[in-house]
Write a structure and sequence with these properties.
- The protein has about 425 residues and is α+β, with helices and mostly antiparallel strands.
- It contains 10 helices and 14 strands.
- Strands 1, 2, 3, 4, 5, 6, 7, 8, 9 and 10 form a 10-stranded mixed β-sheet that branches.
- Helix 5 packs across helix 8, helix 8 packs across helix 9 and helix 8 packs across helix 10.
- This is FYVE-type domain-containing protein.
Length: about 425
């Protein structure tokens, strides 16, 4: 197919068969990662140092890469074009919508999760975390990477941070996960989107272009990615809620490689599983691989992929930003404009910590006016949020610590439901 006639790629409609095939692939990869997580938990969350070596640690999350790039058992090779559809799928859990009614129905039914239906979980004595479907799409020379740890937040917060059902949200979320420049992000095919029954659900095909910042961009080509993305919430075999985000490279005739435009098509796969842990914390399990485009970019690609795997804290923080922006938009809609500024005598006290802003050290530092409550905030109680608008314009917005903590405590489910009418994505 002529790539020039298809650049830049435009949205297209998938056939019912193609959409079903992609949905099955996404469910399969998430189910396999959930199985790998179950296996890791069954081992006491202990990493086999013979098979894995530590890559980096960040935000209480540790990333590991496989020491051996090949599995002990030979696996058949398939054409890359076959990686977006599978002839057979082992049993996997149904991804139930997670409303309270559906949760009760699921728990009362004879629900079989991954752990109960996948034989791999009962026979893992000498196996690594790699399983078949992701193995088929992973080139022989590419190592597997996984990371695990615990971070502050809730499963719903992570699900809200994972959700990128618009191109603007896709661009923002991607920029939070990598130091690379996100030059373009397009949703080419939307199979499922968020709804009032499941406000965190997205399934679709995306195309992104990333370039290396700084002087390195002069000798490292820009990369483009054609990926299947799936996010949402589901129940595991114990009836516990978890959320997931899958981003997996695929091959489609509608989107050929654009090497004549200076892009190198990069292949990678990433799947995050977030489960409840302790009060106010979640457990992270993420895994995947990336195929570097050359020896020159091998270390750079591995570094960037680790950053993506370890970016769950940033995505949870993105959920807090969305809560703040929802509060701000809700405030504007309810009163028609922002609250009036305070009287001059009210500006002398920080409303978050009650420090005096007009005497002592308070005189030496600038204070801010919270855009939400219009109260004063000293420098240490000012939270600055960089918000990216629809036209890639970045705006720095200042909130007081009190409003930030109020937003953080908001239900992510409630914000997700109420944001549907704002985005128009129902």
């Amino acid at each position: 197919m002529n790539s020039k006639a298809n650049y830049p790629p435009k949205p297209f409609v998938l056939s019912a068969a193609a959409a079903d095939s992609l949905e099955q692939l996404a469910d399969q990869l998430v189910a396999e990662t959930l199985t790998a997580n179950d296996e890791f938990i069954s081992r006491g969350c202990i990493t086999d140092k013979v098979q894995w070596r530590s890559l980096k640690k960040k935000d209480n999350i540790t990333a590991y890469r496989s020491r051996s790039w090949r599995t002990s058992k030979p696996r058949p090779r398939i054409n890359s074009a076959d990686t977006d559809a599978l002839a057979k799928f082992p049993e996997k859990p149904e991804f139930y919508p997670v409303t309270e009614k559906n949760i009760r129905n699921a728990l009362n039914s004879s629900y079989l999760g991954v752990s109960a239906t996948c034989p791999e979980v009962n026979d893992f004595e000498n196996k690594s975390l790699e399983v078949e479907t992701m193995e088929k799409s992973r080139p022989d020379h590419v190592p597997m990477v996984f990371c695990t740890g615990s971070v502050p937040g809730s499963v719903e917060d992570a699900a809200l941070g994972f959700l990128a059902d618009t191109e603007a949200r896709t661009r923002t979320r991607t920029s939070k996960c990598t130091d690379a420049n996100v030059d373009d992000a397009k949703i080419l095919a939307r199979i499922e989107g968020p709804s009032y029954e499941d406000p965190f659900r997205f399934l679709g095909v995306k195309w992104l272009t990333l370039s290396t910042p700084g002087a390195a961009k002069h000798f490292i080509k820009a990369r483009d990615y054609l990926v299947l993305e799936s996010s949402g919430m589901a129940l595991d075999s114990d009836g516990e809620l978890f959320c997931y985000l899958l981003i997996h490279s695929i091959v489609l005739d509608e989107v050929p490689e654009f090497d004549s435009f200076g892009f190198v098509r990069q292949t990678f796969s990433t799947c995050h599983i977030i489960r409840p842990y302790t009060e106010g914390e979640v457990k992270v399990f993420s895994r995947g691989f990336t195929d570097s485009t050359s020896k020159l970019t091998e270390r750079l690609s591995m570094n960037q992929h680790c950053d993506i795997l370890m970016a769950v804290p940033q995505m949870i923080e993105e959920a807090n930003t969305r809560k703040l922006m929802w509060l701000l938009q809700n405030e504007r809609q309810s009163v028609g404009h922002l609250r009036p500024a305070q009287e001059p005598e009210q500006l002398d006290t920080c409303q978050s910590c009650n420090d005096n802003l007009s005497s002592g050290l308070g005189k030496l530092f600038d204070y801010s006016i919270c855009v939400l409550c219009r109260h004063s905030a000293c420098r240490k109680c000012t939270v600055k949020i960089c918000f990216t608008g629809e036209h890639k314009m970045k705006t720095m917005i200042k909130f007081c610590l009190k409003c930030y903590l109020e937003a953080k405590r908001l239900s992510a489910w409630r914000v997700g439901i109420n944001s549907l009418s704002i985005t128009g994505k129902v």
